[in-house]
Design goal:
The structure is a single chain. By secondary structure, this protein is mainly beta. It has helices spanning 2-16, 147-159, 201-204, and strands at residues 32-42, 49-62, 65-77, 82-94, 99-108, 111-122, 126-133, 137-142, 164-168, 181-188, 216-224, 236-243, 248-254, 259-269. 11% of the residues lie in helices and 48% in strands. The chain has a 14-stranded antiparallel sheet with strand order 8-7-6-5-4-3-2-1-14-13-12-11-10-9, with helices on one face. The N and C termini lie far apart (46 Å).
Length: 279
Amino acid sequence: MARDRSRSALILTMIATSLFAFPAKAADIVPHLAVYDMSMLRKSSDLVGGSGRIALKLEREACEQIELDYRFVARFEREDATVVTDQQTVSVENFAARAYHFTTRTFVDNVEGWVIRGSATNTDTRTRVEIAEPSAETFDLPLSVFPTAHTMDLIDMAIAGESLVEARLYDGDNEAGKLLTTTAIITPVEAEATPPGPANPEAASSPVAAMLDLRRWRVAESYYNSDSKLDGLPLFQTSYTLYENGISDDIIIDNGDYAFSGSLSKLELASAPDCEDAS
């Protein structure tokens, strides 16, 4: 059960971390520090409650590379015990090299349960994956998109007015042979009717107050792999508000048995390199 819940966290990595992609879009990208407070939206029969917190730091010192330090701690409360999972992911995506490097460590009740460390590189026709831990392994996948590029694709498609995006995704999954795919439905979100100010102090103090004039979309995304063929149902379903600068808010993740929801409780924007001149 704890492993399934950590897998949920791995999928959420891509959604909640506000990842970015291509160097040509660097002027729109905002490196940042963000914290999301999560609560249990729906419980499975063995749970009486749950909560969590996501903290991430996204850095972009160079136009061709994004570095992410991400942590998701979730508490699952049962009548007889409480289980705490702690997933820590460090990843680097290099656009020039078309490469993705990742290390994910998962702890259950402060005991390390497992680690996956490796890298993936895209050619014109395939994705080559090299796993270093838990055991050395190299294999090829059909050409797949990495998490940062996928999120930027969603923004590009949303700006272009597209409402449906399908992709084959590689996110450092320890079951990569099952070929993770995603289908996203994109819906525009209208701008706030009341801007933040003295007459609306609650909006003015919101972590997203500085982004209310940005374009944004509600994204509903379903994830599938070869196991989904048995019943046709997705492994996970998520929804979130995606801003044009790549930051996400108002997240829901639903794995069928239980669901978490959360929103930004802290957001600090950092400076970004001038990649318009570099592109």
